[in-house]
Amino acid sequence: MPLPLVTPRLTLRPYESGDLDALHDLFGREDVVRYVPWEPMGLDRARELLERRLRQTRIDADGDGIVLAAVETETGAMVGEFGLWVSSLEHRQGVVGWAIHPDRQGRGLATEGAEELLRVGFEVLDMHRIIADSDPRNTPSLR
After folding, report:
1. Which residue from 82, 112, 116, 122 has the highest number of Cβ atoms inside 10 Å of its Cβ?
2. pLDDT digit string, tens, across residues 52-108
3. Which residues does 54 contact at the CB level (< 8 Å), separation at least 6?
4. What is the Cα Rg of the chain in Å?
């Protein structure tokens, strides 16, 4: 998959070691993690997550995923992340997910990034079905 992915307002790129503060700022917030299966992260846990994210750049087997930092092209600020995981290579099925920093929500960035991941999943990775896994309380994300 050719990276980075570029949309009108976002650059979706692999994580870099310098993304620690932005990742911590995102997942250290209660208003972000209420929709993911973990508690707000301290800096050490964010560092561990970043180490995992640095390796999530290819899909070779079931359960593998590509997780990309979402950078707002205009400002250069990391505004969230987007991921595409394979649930079954044999059946060509995957899952997309995302998190957008609350300061940048409500502007359609999640839709823009998710649409790009869906394009890549179907057109580049030849997936048959891709679902989005979302907490049912997250009404804006469900839209």
Report:
1. 82
2. 999 999 999 999 999 999 999 999 999 999 999 999 999 999 999 999 999 999 999
3. 14, 15, 16, 17
4. 14
Q: Which ranges constitute the DSSP H helices of the chain? A: 20-27, 30-33, 43-55, 109-119, 139-142
The tokens describing 138, both together, are 């997250």
Q: What is the pLDDT at residue 7? A: 97
Give the tokens for residue 113. 């990034």
| CA distances in angstroms from 50 to 67, 96, 103, 131, listed in the order given | 10, 19, 21, 24
Measured distance CA(60)–CA(64) in Å, rounded: 6
Query: How many beta carbons lie within 10 A of that of residue 97, not counting itself?
Result: 20
Per cent of the chain over pLDDT 70 is: 98
Rounded Cα distance between 143 and 122, Å, is 21
Which residues have CB under 8 Å from 68's CB, separation 6+?
3, 4, 5, 12, 13, 14, 15, 81, 82, 83
